[in-house]
Design a protein that fits this description.
GO terms for molecular function: 2 iron, 2 sulfur cluster binding; oxidoreductase activity. This is Oxidoreductase. This protein is α/β, with parallel strands linked by helices. Helices cover 19% and strands 34% of the residues. It contains seven helices and 16 strands. It is globular, with a radius of gyration of 21 Å.
Amino acid sequence: MAQTLENPFLRRLIVTAVKQETDDVKTFQLIPEDGKPLPYKSGQFLTFLFSEHGREDRRSYSISSASGHNEALTVTVKRVPNGSFSRWFFDRVKRNDVLQTIGASGFFTLPENIEAHRQLFFFAAGVGITPVISIIKTALCDHIHLQIVLVYSNRSIAETVFYGELEQLKASFPERFKIEYIFSTAKDLERAHLNKWLLPALYQEHSDGELDKQLFYICGPFAYRRMVIMSLEELNIPAAKIKKEDFDVSKPKLRLMPQDTGSHQVRVQVRGKQYSFEVNYPDSILQASRKAQVAILPFSCETGQCGTCVAQCLSGNVWMSYNEVLTDDEIASGKVLTCVGHPQKGDVVLSFDADGQLVSR
């Protein structure tokens, strides 16, 4: 009989309210069933566990509330026509239902050295506003030195998620918060879509001229993100100043092989306990841990694109086959993605505790 392992990251959340934002977007208010706070940073997401036909699956949805402001924890979900999980979430989840999560994850957050920055630019399309509004609320209330510009693309006001809340924030912080709405139904075709001509014009209009003190955040569909990134690159914005959120769960093809495909031992620290298992290529560290059935490690996308599986490497070397999450500085500090990570040239020691991950995960 297969061993049943306790998941140390699992939390149960009670749905306390459901708010219809637009025709296809709802916000769900949540409280932990055990009464203990669920720590998170503004801009992060929750990974939920779903059971379907006896098989567990996972999906991540962005937190729309602001951390540390006595706001109820909320996630905002868009109903995607061909999305089985988003349709279930949107159509069936109601007040008093209980959901399972492994906690908050993600690096689409304010940096630790936020005091060194003066201006933040946010580019959001559709429901991509969800993590963005979380960060904006925290930035406006907690960091009064920041100037914030939001460029937000939608079809119309009626389809603009959080339109009323954004207008209230703009009225409360008129000197620090500017919004440029882009509506595809606008009569002025030059402002109907954000493009490589309009974006530079908006940047020049709102930029304070101190590029070294600016940061840029992007959240929206793939084509939108690509266009914004390319436009910022043409403005000579360094890649290190650009943060993007990506929830694409498609599996990227392995482009490279590690130099070392041998077998190595990996020891992981999880909530103060230690577990060891062997990793054999092509299995990643995460895949090997699941096969070994010695410990449950956090994960979501399994593609190197969300950051839920991040760990701190305490000893040894880990090669990653794909990475859309960690910056060069984070990698240099020892952070690794276990879903695409492979031990190299010897054994490895990893931590999923405070130094490698939020304790809440």
